[in-house]
Design a protein that fits this description.
alpha/beta, Nucleotidyltransferase, domain 5, 5-stranded mixed β-sheet, ATPase_NBD, T6A_TsaB, tRNA threonylcarbamoyladenosine biosynthesis protein TsaB, Gcp-like_dom
């Protein structure tokens, strides 16, 4: 058993070392970050990001913004060797714009394309700025999903691993439901509620639903921000480093969008079979009798009419 545990630890250490090496290597690769999960953020890693908060206009402003940040970095599009695109979770229209732009540029330049979800960087960003206080900090990363819902996941940074560990899988729900699920997770831990574990909330929409998040029994700090557009140069770097770490670990870095929302329409249920009522046979017999009586009456009327006609002819 010890040999198996040592082998497992060795594998984990090897994966962590590979991820760390890839993180350092990613700093030397000219990398462009594009994310339209909330507004639009574009940056060349190592330089200040360009942020467009208006989701209604970022589609037409995205291409000029990309050209601007690449030029400001002293590069040309062909110099970009890696593109990291935010894959959400986020609403459909805005998210699609950034992914389409990233795919088109990767195709045109031959740059490597990596997808990165936008919740993980929140946990990594908070961990970098936290001072040790003897408590176990976990991060509830959120993003506004509109319709009074949030995308969310619960993460924890573990020393030596650049990628946050998932405690609650990514999903979409109301803030009240999210708080309930976090409390359920807290109750399943060995640490008593309200004790050493602290749940920090970070992401766009966190402040809007502050009253609901107050229901989390171990609530810590709340940040209504995205590291991509408020952390300066550090934000895009964290974003790109996480994507590089996933790539080095062999994780899929697909650029497929994460919508998560269930369809508003569903396939209709199959038609119900018509069932016969209990007195169906009797009712059908009465109908047949009525039809027969009607036919007999019509025949009698025709005979009477013909008889009257014959009488008139004789006269």
């Amino acid at each position: 058993m010890n040999d198996a545990m040592n082998a497992t630890n060795s594998t984990a250490d090897g994966t962590t070392q590979a991820a760390g090496s890839a993180t350092r290597e990613s700093q030397d690769i000219p990398t462009l970050v594009i994310d339209t999960s909330f507004g639009a953020t574009v940056a060349v890693v190592g330089h200040e990001p360009h942020y467009e908060p208006d989701s209604r206009s970022h589609v037409e402003k995205l291409e000029p913004a990309i050209s601007h940040v690449v030029e400001q970095a002293g590069l040309t599009p062909s110099d970009i060797r890696r593109i990291v695109v935010g894959t959400g979770p986020a609403p459909f229209t805005g998210l699609r714009a950034g992914i389409v732009a990233a795919r088109a540029m990767a195709f045109a330049t031959g740059a490597e394309l990596l997808g990165q979800n936008v919740l993980e960087p929140q946990a990594a960003w908070l961990a970098q700025g936290q001072l040790p206080d003897g408590r176990r900090h976990v991060t509830l990363a959120v993003n506004d999903a509109r319709r009074k819902q949030l995308y969310y996941a619960l993460y924890e940074m573990v020393p030596g691993d650049p990628v946050p560990h998932v405690l609650i899988d990514m999903d979409i729900a109301s803030a009240g439901t999210i708080a309930h699920k976090v409390n359920e997770w807290l109750r399943s831990r060995d640490t008593p509620e309200g004790g050493e574990i602290v749940v920090d909330v970070c992401g766009t929409g966190a402040k809007r639903y502050f009253s609901s998040f107050q229901g989390i029994v171990a609530l810590g700090d709340l940040h209504d921000d995205s590291c991509l557009h408020v952390a300066g140069v550090q934000g895009p770097r964290i974003f790109a480093q996480l994507a590089a770490a996933h790539h080095a670990a062999g994780d899929p870095c697909s650029s497929e969008p994460l919508y998560l929302r269930r369809p508003d329409v569903s396939e209709p249920a199959p038609f119900k079979h018509v069932t016969e009522e209990p007195n169906h046979a009797a009712r059908m017999e009465r109908i047949a009798q009525a039809e027969a009586a009607g036919a007999a009456h019509e025949s009698a009327s025709q005979n009477a009419s013909q008889g009257a006609s014959h009488g008139e002819v004789r006269r």
